[in-house]
Amino acid sequence: MRRILLIFGLGMGLALVAGWTAFPRALYVRREQPLEFHHKTHSEKSGLTQCDSCHALGSDGEFQGIAGVETCAGCHAEKVGTSKAEATLVDSYIKPARETPWLVYSRQPANVWFSHAIHTHRAGLACQDCHGTLGESDQVRTYEQNRISGYSRDIWGHSMSRLGRAPGDGMKMSDCEDCHHRHNVEVGCLGCHK
Amino acid sequence: MKFSRRDLLIGGAGALAGLALTPVPWKLLSDVSIWTQNFPWIPQPAHGPVETKYSVCTLCEGGCGIRVRMATKYPVGVAGVRDHPVSKGALCPLAFAAHQLNWHPRRLREVRHAGRTASWAEAQTAFVKACGEGPTAIVDARPGRAVSSVFEAFTRKHRGSYQVVLSAESQALTPYAGWSGVPVTSLGYDLENARTIVSFGVPVLDGWGTPGRFTRLWSERAAGAADPQLRLIQIEPSLSRTAARAWRWVPLREGSEAALAAGVARTLLEEHLVGAPGPMPRSTLAEAAAQTGLATEAIRDLAQRMVENRPVVVIAPDGNPAIAALNVLLGAVGAPGGIVRKRGDVPSHVSADPLPGSFRAVLVDSTVPWEFAAQNDAEVFRFAAWDGGGDSAGWLLPAPGFLEELTDVPTPPTSALETYAVAQNLVAPPTEIRSAAQFLLQIDPTLPAVEKVIHARCDEIFRTRQGTVYGEHPLAVTKIYSAKHLEEQLRKGAVWMGDPPSPGKFRCELKEWPADNRAANATCWAASWAPPVFPPLATKLYQESNLREPPAGRQA
Amino acid sequence: MSARYGFVIDLDRCTGCGACMVACAAENNVPPAPARATPRTGLTPMLVHKVSNGMEGAARREAFIPIACMHCGNETPCVAVCPQQAVEVDKATGIVVQMPQRCLGCRYCMAACAYHARYFNWWDPAWPVGMEKSLNPGVAVRMRGVVEKCNLCPARLHSAQEKAAAAGRKEIDPADYIPACAEACPTGAILFGNLADKNDPVFSAAHSADAFRLLARLGTEPKVYYKSQEAWVKALAERDSVRPTEAQHG
Amino acid sequence: MADLVLIDRRLIARGAERTSTMRFMFWLIPWVALAALGIYAAALCLYFGLNQTHMDTRFAFGMWIYLDLGMIAMGAGAFFTGFLVYILKQEDLKPVLNSAVVVGLICYSGAVAVLMVDVGQPLRAWFTFWHPNTHSMLTEVTFCITCYLFVLILEYLPVLLRNRQLRKVPSFLVFEYQLHKLVPVLAAVGAFLSFFHQGSLGGLYGVLRGRPFAFRQGFAIWPSTFFLFILSAIAVGPSFLMLVTAAAETLTERRLVGANVFRKLGLISGVLLGIYVAAKAIDTLVWLNITSPAVGFSPWDFYAYKPFGSALLFLEIVPLGLLPAFLLTSPLTTRRRGWLLCGAALACGGVLLNRFVLTVQTLALPTLAFDDFLQYIPSWQEVATFAGVIAYGVILYSLSYRYLPLFGQAKRADKNVSLD
């Protein structure tokens, strides 16, 4: 009887270890960003302290997303410094006016409608409330993509158990719901889906 | 200790139990469902901001104003422009999917000769050679455009002939042109002032002329009322959309329109319902009744109705002289609410029936209907954005598609007022694309460039100091400070509209009642739609619903 | 301050041109028909029916009845039946919302709908090569195997809301929110607005003498009203006004 | 081949006489082929989507839903017999109990299988458990059908574990013994679940106020069809059980249960059928005169569309309702096995017709004044998929019969267990 329990426990243990360590590695494919980019440098060195100096809202409130190369060209028309990233930026993106194929950590699927304007202007949220310390980043982290759903890992969050997550780590529907619920904002499906 | 099969089973059971306590089954379950919500083979709409542009539709002569939503330099939606003076905010059903046309499977992206791929260079040499060997014809379906004047210039310089294929709407005006000597392109219908409109099977509520113009008028003054301000009498064998919505529907026998016209004319004259006497038709009322299958009473009643609520205008689907003669009899020619002559004359060398004489080479503009057949011994250079099917022996030259070409839009055929608009090239065409004008300009660089002609036209309008420019706000030309500014306005989607005509400036002399007894053929609902193909979404109208008949010879 | 959006459609003004159907499909990224699709398997969130008074010859009359989701306001049949809350009545707008991403494709809601205004994606949505560039960025493409219907052009509602928020307004500007079909109608037969707002044109129109609703006696309080002067057209509102033999399409 | 025969023989219970391996295999082959075809058709539907069927916007439900409803009704024999034996202590029905469980298992698992093909997004079907809409009859159906299927499997296990080979494993015997003590509880749970399941299937259509032909008033949240379905199901369950058993008897050329069992099943079935038909008649009258006119539908118009006429209604109530009720109860006929089976067949036919009318006819009928009456013919994929399920049923039943003690061995099995 003890032997049975032992072998049972052995199998169980193996499964637990594999499921919590190997599985996450296998589930996500790691992809590097096309460029080295530091928010920190831009806020400290070039005084772009406001997020919306690069991530602005359009005339009708639509979020413009990551700044296009023409914005970068404002300062980087010619190489600033000698870093490899700088060379890549100028030569392969700014000069040929090609948009940088950034991998967007917080990209939501096509069926999600998220209005920055409503959350910043009406709800008065700060960028940090959702994007955490992204604005002070001094390196680009690897983008992890779910092999099955194709979502960025940031949507589920980095902890598999979804416990103890920092702001911006985890942007699932349930996270939207929780926040709306906390601030008793009543939105139906159309509030976030398109 | 050695493992037995039994141990393996137990271990496996343990593993299963353990797995249930890991994210594996649950995360997989969730991710697989998410996968079903974003199947990788399903197209994703573009990211990025959307901007709105204003322009004018060039898919038919109607000149409707359009509002185009652009995302990442491609159009993602087309809508009408409210208070547009020409189209009154309306569009035909097909226009709402027009932005998809440029990706139609039938889109031409390469030069083809005798069904095989060829190059522009070859086409050019072939054309130049042909021009050298004999007379050339250039066929246009929309006279009066900047492009047209490029055509004319070319034909003038290279002893060619500029030919025009008239739309059904224009053809319907040819009899008056014949009787009065006023060019067809200078004539129009003053519908806005008419109080009775008698249509001989013309789909006036279903895409005739500029779709929005009459439908809006009708919905404001006629729709639903038992005794409307504007009476629409539809004379048509079958209960068409227009007939179903008309104030009165007169069902008559196929092809007996001319006979009915004669019958009505006789009644009008015999019962002195019209002031000025006119030529009496030979056929008797009884004959008319017999041919049309209507009671003589019905014909008398129809004549009564026509004069009851004036001004009245009769609209024919084509150049049927008997029907046109009714307008003369009713005094609707050159009178308010009838057939009127526009202020200035658009260049008037327009021949109604194309290709008299024989030609060595025939260049066919992309506006010419696909069905148009050039004389068969000539070498044909056919410009088209979409392949209408059938095997052409000649040259098939890929022309700009929707919103891919800078061109101008002169007065639509049925309009009583002069208008002028400019369609910008909002979309970059595929690499191999060239318009007929560009083609000719490469052969003869001395020709005027389309851009320059448009520029000149704007100058001209600016100098006449008349009319109004309808942009964000209507602005009288007198209030505009420069021709350049006017052109900018037009390029931003504004439209210039001339002042109302001073009527009575022309009349028609009718010696005798037209003997011609040909049947009037009503046109199909999409006849004026120039491309030989439909936007794929048109399937909603006739494949995915029973709303309409699939139009012949067109593919969605 | 919740709205109740709806239509008042003047059938005497409808010429059956179909602009509303095409405009709707273009706005909402509804795919074109696959080769085998028929009127019975098509995707037409806005569908114009051709109807007749059943007579022949000169006595025949025809009319056109545009039918989209009626956005029923009472005991909404499709909401109650959906097993997994893929359908809901939006509290703020009264829109009956169909969420294809939640739908499992059981089609129970289609059986529940008296107006046949719900459609099933029998095929994978497909466009000719490159045409995906012409898709409306404001609307997600549905996938095969789910039900869809008129959600009252949510993309337009969204941009109106966003515009309001950016301008610091709480309520949207009514001029910013007009569904594609209403905007497209060349005769202005389709009137859209907030039925809960007494100052909105639809309010008076919906309460005018010649306004009626289809199958009103089912008690589902549809938010799409119709108008007509013609008695035979009004009669089409209720099933028992028509004997089975006459109950055929025009 | 030889060792195949050996295995086959080893699996058959000691002392049980079964036909030769060869004959058994020849019997299976066509059914296996049919099942394979069914799997192929189902695969087509899952891979290419439901455009493989002939369902459409109006006929959103097709043959599959109809047959699901039918099968579930037939499967009612399982829970009802269990209920009779364990709750109402009708010990003399025990001989057919195992057979009933197998029939139930087949019907329910088959129905679930078809449903998984029928929904457009089977991979998301679990959303119903994660985001259930408690107001939906379909949610009730889904929950009950899954739970009850689980119960049926548990009920099937003890039967399965009495297989000659499996009984060799001691721990299985222990397990089976424990399970056996549990069976009455399972029967009770099963009865409750299946009761609701049958009902909610009826409710499925009864609640559709948008389909006045099916819509019914009811008590609380349940329309009258909810209760009619329960009644009809328990009425027809035993009848179907009789038919299956009789079929097994003819095929195996053996008397498997005593005539008394048949008579008892028939009596139960007949009496319940009588009650059902009466209730159904009242319900129809109420609908004709109150429910339907109230929402602007003249009920007789529904019957004006051919081929569906008022004849169907008559057929359902008299020849396929009252008549079988008489045949199954009257002492004149119940002595004759033939009459009894004939009654059972008619009863099943009646209930199947009822399901057909409620599903297919409801969708065929127009609602809007300008709707057409529609025809619908299932595609071969739909037919094949379902045929596959039938084949699966036959195969599972044959195997169970061959290798498990389905009939009459219940008692002996118990004794053996207590001996160990």
Which word captures the global form of chain B? globular
Calculate the mean pLDDT score of chain C and round it: 93
Name the structural class of chain B: alpha/beta
In DSSP terms (H or I, runs of 4 or more residues), the helix count of chain C works out at: 7
| Count of discrete domains of chain B | 3
Biggest interface goes to: B-C, 71 and 66 residues
Q: Class of the largest domain in chain B in CATH? A: Alpha Beta
What does this structure look like?
The complex is a heterotetramer of chains A (194), B (556), C (250) and D (420). With 194 residues, chain A is mainly alpha-helical. Chain A has helices at 2-27, 39-44, 69-76, 84-94, 116-122, 127-131, 153-156, 173-182, and strands spanning 28-31, 143-146. In chain A, helix 3 packs across helix 4 (84-94). The model of chain A has no long low-confidence stretch (mean pLDDT 88). By secondary structure, chain B is an alpha/beta fold. In chain B, 29% of the residues lie in helices and 16% in strands. Chain B is built from 16 helices and 21 strands. Chain B has helices at residues 5-20, 23-37, 120-133, 146-157, 168-171, 174-180, 211-221, 241-245, 257-270, 285-292, 296-308, 321-329, 436-443, 450-464, 483-491, 539-542, and strands spanning 50-56, 65-71, 74-80, 111-113, 116-118, 136-140, 161-164, 187-189, 196-199, 231-235, 248-250, 312-315, 339-341, 361-364, 379-384, 395-398, 407-409, 419-423, 468-470, 474-476, 495-497. In chain B, the strands form five sheets. In chain B, strands 5-4-16-15-14-6-7 form a seven-stranded mixed β-sheet, with helices on one face. In chain B, strands 17-18-21-19-20 form a five-stranded antiparallel β-sheet. A four-stranded parallel β-sheet of chain B has the order 11-10-9-12. Chain B is globular, with a radius of gyration of 29 Å. Chain C is α+β, with helices and mostly antiparallel strands. Chain C has one domain (5-246): Alpha-Beta Plaits (2-Layer Sandwich), CATH 3.30.70. Chain C has a four-stranded mixed β-sheet with strand order 8-1-10-9. A two-stranded antiparallel ribbon of chain C has the order 2-3. In chain C, strands 4-5 form a two-stranded antiparallel sheet. Chain C starts with a strand and ends in a 15-residue tail after the last helix. The model of chain C is unreliable at 246-250 (pLDDT under 50). Chain D is mainly α. Chain D has one domain: Formate dehydrogenase/DMSO reductase domain (Formate dehydrogenase/DMSO reductase fold). Helix content of chain D is 74%, strand content 1%. In chain D, strands 1-2 form a two-stranded antiparallel sheet. In chain D, helix 2 (21-48) runs antiparallel to helix 14. The longest helix of chain D is centred in the middle third of the chain and has 37 residues, at 170-206. The two termini of chain D are 35 Å apart. The relative contact order of chain D is 0.15. The chains are: A mainly alpha (194), B alpha/beta (556), C alpha+beta (250), D mainly alpha (420). Chains in contact: A-B, A-C, B-C, B-D, C-D.
